[in-house]
Amino acid sequence: MTIQPQSLITIGVLLLALVTVESGGLFLKKVAQGDVPTNDLQKSFFRAGHAHAAVLIVLSVAILSVIDNAGLTGFWEFVARDGVPIAAILMPAGFFLSVIGRDPQRPNRFVALLWAGVVSLTAGLLVAGVGLLSAGIAAL
To answer: Where are the membrane-spanning stretches (predicted)?
Structure first.
């Protein structure tokens, strides 16, 4: 199994991005200790943003490790290769940015980033899944 250079580069960037998720963990520790004033909405959105960032980055690495074997090209290759990594940026950004400010009572307009990430995640998973299934079946 050969991994294409663009996949290797993206995996490298994603692994380095996990360092930012790690620093986000330090921020969450400060929130939990009460060192950063937050309300319940902010606490829950910050936790969700942090968790989604980590899980989606790891999922992206897993998909990129095998997607080159799916034989996808053009638009479908882009969606399969980049859908989940894009979601790994958009969804956490939506969680964090939608509750910035002092004592927000509901998410602001940045919550749209969360929903854009949901679309990107769903498309990426569907296209990668179907592409890999098709490649596996064809290889039987």
So the answer is: 6-28, 49-67, 79-100, 112-139
What's the whole-model pTM score?
A: 0.92
Strand, helix or coil for residue 119: helix
Task: Name the one residue in this structure whose structure tokens are 């479908």.
Answer: 76
DSSP secondary structure, 34-95, as one string: TSS---HHHHHHHHHHHHHHHHHHHHHHHHHHHGGGG---HHHHHHHHHHHHHHHHHHHHHH
Alpha carbon distance 35, 54 (integer Å): 23
Run of H or E including 106: none
Per the structure, the count of domains in the chain is: 1
Q: What domain range includes position 17?
A: 5-139
Residue 70, exposed/middle/buried by CB under 10 A (0-12, 13-18, 19+)? buried
Render pLDDT for 85-102 as a digit per residue (tens, 0 to 9).
999 999 999 999 999 999
Count of helix runs (H) and strand runs (E) in the chain: 4, 0
Kindly report the backbone phi and psi dihedral angles of residue 3, in degrees, each rounded to the nearest multiple of 5, phi listed first: -105, 130
